[in-house]
Amino acid sequence: MQSSARSVISAVGRGAELLTDVDYHLAETAAEKEEIYNLRYRAYLREGAVKPSADARVTDRYDELPNAWTFGVYLHGELCSSVRISVLTSEWRESTSADVFPDILMPRLDRGEVMIDPTRFVADPDQVKRVPELPYLTTRLAYMACEHFNADLGLAIVRSEHQAFYRRVFLHETIAEPRLVPGLTKPFGLMAADFPTFRKKVFERYPIMRSTAFERRMLFGRGGQRQVPQRPVLVADAARARVGVGADAALA
User: Among 18, 243, 247, 21, which Cα is nearest to 139's?
Assistant: First the structure.
């Protein structure tokens, strides 16, 4: 276990060096979205999470919801991975996790909790071999969202075999046993981390998970349809180092 923890810390450390070469880009045009949908298909097909299809793309209705941000992660200008960030509040109640685990999440939304639901986390199968830090650079977006929207919970849909990693590294707890997710062939369980409680500990352990207020505003401070209800945003220390997160490379 100690050697595993050291390897995670080492990978996250190397990921910090790559941040200057990484571009987080919100997919807004049809071409940008299609490229990500194709990437999802290739990644899921490699894992056996979807069946072969002629159109070679994976998308769903959540992609177009106003409380969802689908990001492409580009390294040296090339799309390498993607994640969709959904923000759940008492007003915004639709996301993959909310619909698969309504009995778990709806009562908490009724109490006014704010949740970040990162799903459709995929990485290019070939790029991951060359850049093993890629999953950490990608899930960094979830931590930025938790900071920006002052979340109570950071959610994660995780296969059973990867839950120990989330529990050990990111202090997630399993809050629902695996269920089938529409469009996928494998069941996923629901895990969650109490962000206000664990944020300082995780950020101290993995400084790459940090981010600046400016960076978060550039990614999530969108107007129009993308402006979701939120609490007052935490004030970030402008001098704080950029930060990131690690994880498993195939969420729902």
Answer: 247
Task: Please report the beta strands in the chain, taking only residues with DSSP state E, as ranges in sequence order.
Answer: 22-26, 68-75, 78-88, 115-123, 153-158, 173-180, 187-194
Cβ(67)–Cβ(86) below 8 Å:
yes
Distances (CA, A) of 76 to 18, 20, 125: 10, 10, 17
Pair of tokens at residue 109: 């939304």
Amino acid code (one letter) for 241: A
The CA distance from 135 to 71, in Å, is: 13
Residue range 174-230, pLDDT digits in tens: 999 999 998 888 899 999 999 999 888 888 888 888 899 999 999 998 654 445 554
Dump pLDDT digits (tens) for 46-71: 988 899 999 999 999 999 999 999 99
Check: CB of residue 117 under 8 Å from CB of residue 190: no
**Residues 169/5, Cβ–Cβ less than 8 Å:** yes
Beta bridge partners of 167: none
Q: Phi, psi at residue 120, to the nearest 5°?
A: 50, 40
- CB-hemisphere CA count at 13 Å for 180? 5
